[in-house]
Amino acid sequence: MSAFTIFLVLIVIVAFLLVVVIMVQNPKGGGLSSSFGGGGTQQLGGVKKTGDFLDKSTWFLATALIVLILASNLTMESNTTVESKALDTTEDTTLPPLNTTPTTDDTSGGSDTTNE
Prior knowledge:
116 residues; mainly alpha; 49% helix; 0% strand
């Protein structure tokens, strides 16, 4: 298994976790953080601590995703011997001549258009 494949698997996992963490958050202060510490009780760290954890985990996962993408770019195998076909000037780009004579199908029994 190459290093690029390992980075690719890690990128997919981190991206999935980032989506989950973002979906759990509520932009107006509700969501998962309000269900953990509502009513003034301090269950599972309270609203403030859960909100802080979700914010910090979002920033950590986003930073980890960017670092993994950049690191995977460094591990990609670059094949410098293959050149772009778009810039290939050695290939003949002329088109074959068009057939300007109309073709007739003699087997269809078509009518002769000349008047005698």
